[in-house]
Design brief:
Layout: H1 2-10, H2 16-45, E1 51-53, E2 56-57, H3 59-81, H4 85-109, H5 116-141, H6 151-154, H7 157-187, H8 190-203, H9 208-222, H10 230-262, H11 271-296, H12 300-353
Antiparallel strand pairs: 1-2
Helix pairs in contact: 1-3, 1-9, 2-3, 3-5, 4-5, 7-12, 8-11, 8-12, 9-11, 10-11, 11-12
Length: 355
C-alpha cells in the first residue's frame, strides 16, 4: 500500500482523505489478526512471538512498534508524493539522534538497570514518535478537508492490480533476503549462522545510499519531474556503482581489522562470506534504483519478475551449497541471485529506453 500511495498520490488520483480512509480499516483488520495469531500461538503451541526479556512478554511493545511503523509509512508515502520528503527525514534524524543519546547515556550511567526491556521500550517509542511526526506533517501540509470514504470505492481495478503486484514482489524479495539465514540455521550450527548473519548485515550497508536515492526517485519518476530525466538517472546509477566499488575496495582491506577490534576474533571467519557477497550486493544497488524507476512508471510487474528470479535462484543454490560450504555457500547463492535479478532489470530497462 505504501508504494500504491506514493504512485497514485503523485498522479493526484488519491489525497489525504483517501489515505486515511484506507489506513483506518486496514489497521483495524491487522490488529485483529495480530492478536488472534498471538493468542492461538500461545494457547495451542505455548510459544510467544514477542518477548522483552526472559519470561517477560513484549506483546505491548511489539504492537506499538508494528502499528506505528505502518501508520508512519502511509503518511511518509503521502509526503514523498508531495515532495515533502526532506522535512520528514530531518525530523526522523533528530528523533533518532535523541534515541541514540539516551541509549549511550543509559548504557554508561545505568549499565546494570539498562537492560534489554528498556532498550525494546525505547526502540518502540522511537517508531511511535516518527509516526506522530509523519502524521502531523501530512495533515499540516494538506489544505484538504478530511472526509471518510468507502475503501472499496477508492480501490479501483488499477490500484488493486498495482497493490497486488507490488505485494507479491515484496513478499518474494523478503524471502530472498531472509531464507539464507533460515536455511543456514537448519543445515548448520548457530555459530556458523551467526558468522554468516554478521557478514550479510555488513554487506547490506552498501544498499543504504541506493535505498535513500530510490525513495526520491520513485515519487519524482511518478511525477515525471524534469530533475530525474533519463540521462540524469543513468548518471545516478553510474555514481552509485562507482561509489560502492570504491567503498568495497576499502572494505576488502579494512574488514579484518574492523571485525577483530569491534566484534572479536570469534567472527574473523565472516570475512570470506563477506567477500563472496560483495559482487552481488554491489550489483543489487543498481537493482534498487531500477526497481524505483519501474515502479514510478507504474510497471511493477517487471519488479515482481526480478524478485521471482532472485528468490528462485537463491533458494535453489542455498539448498545445494549450504550443506557443502556452509556460510560461504549461502554467500555465493545470495550473490548470484542478486546479480541475476539485476542483469534481468538492466536488460528490461535497456529495451524500454531504446523504444
Amino acid at each position: 500500500m505504501e508504494s500504491t500511495i506514493i504512485y497514485f498520490a503523485a498522479k493526484n488520483k488519491i489525497g489525504l482523505s483517501e489515505i486515511v480512509s484506507l489506513l483506518l480499516p486496514l489497521l483495524l483488520v491487522q490488529m485483529i489478526v495480530f492478536f488472534l495469531v498471538y493468542l492461538i500461538s500461545m494457547l495451542l503451541f505455548h510459544h510467544q512471538f514477542f518477548q522483552a526479556a526472559i519470561n517477560q512478554p513484549g506483546v505491548g511493545w511489539a504492537f506499538l512498534f508494528i502499528f506505528s511503523s505502518i501508520a508512519c509509512n502511509y503518511f511518509t508515502a503521502f509526503l514523498s508524493a508531495k515532495k515533502i520528503f526532506f522535512r520528514i527525514i530531518v525530523y526522523n534524524i533528530i528523533v533518532q539522534l535523541l534515541f541514540l543519546t539516551v541509549l549511550i547515556v543509559g548504557h554508561y550511567m545505568y549499565a546494570y538497570s539498562f537492560n534489554i526491556h528498556v532498550l525494546i521500550a525505547l526502540y518502540s517509542v522511537l517508531f511511535l514518535a516518527n509516526g506522530i511526526i509523519a502524521a502531523l506533517l501530512a495533515f499540516c501540509s494538506s489544505d484538504e478537508k478530511i472526509t471518510f470514504k468507502n475503501p472499496f470505492q477508492i480501490l479501483d481495478k488499477e490500484m488493486l492490480n498495482y497493490t497486488a503486484t507490488a505485494y507479491v514482489a515484496n513478499i518474494l524479495q523478503f524471502f530472498a533476503y531472509r531464507m539464507d539465514i533460515w536455511l543456514m540455521g537448519h543445515f548448520q550450527s548457530k555459530h556458523d549462522t551467526g558468522i554468516y548473519a554478521l557478514s550479510s548485515k555488513i554487506a547490506q550497508l552498501w544498499w543504504l545510499i541506493p535505498q535513500f536515492i530510490a525513495l526520491l526517485l520513485f515519487p519524482l519518476t511518478a511525477l515525471e519531474d524534469e530533475t530525474i530525466s533519463g540521462k540524469k538517472f543513468r548518471q545516478y546509477m553510474l555514481y552509485t556503482i562507482l561509489g560502492g566499488s570504491i567503498a568495497a575496495l576499502i572494505a576488502i582491506w579494512a574488514y579484518p581489522f574492523f571485525i577483530d577490534k569491534i566484534m572479536g576474533t570469534a567472527f574473523n571467519s565472516s570475512y570470506l562470506p563477506f567477500i563472496y557477497l560483495l559482487p552481488g550486493v554491489l550489483l543489487f544497488s543498481i537493482n534498487i534504483l531500477l526497481s524505483a524507476r519501474f515502479a514510478g512508471k507504474g510497471n511493477v510487474l517487471v519488479n515482481m519478475q526480478a524478485s521471482a528470479i532472485c528468490f528462485i535462484i537463491i533458494l535453489g543454490l542455498d539448498i545445494w551449497l549450504i550443506p557443502m560450504k556452509s556460510a560461504a555457500g549461502a554467500a555465493i547463492a545470495s550473490s548470484v541471485g542478486y546479480a541475476a535479478s539485476t542483469f534481468f532489470l538492466i536488460a528490461k530497462y535497456t529495451k524500454w529506453v531504446s523504444k
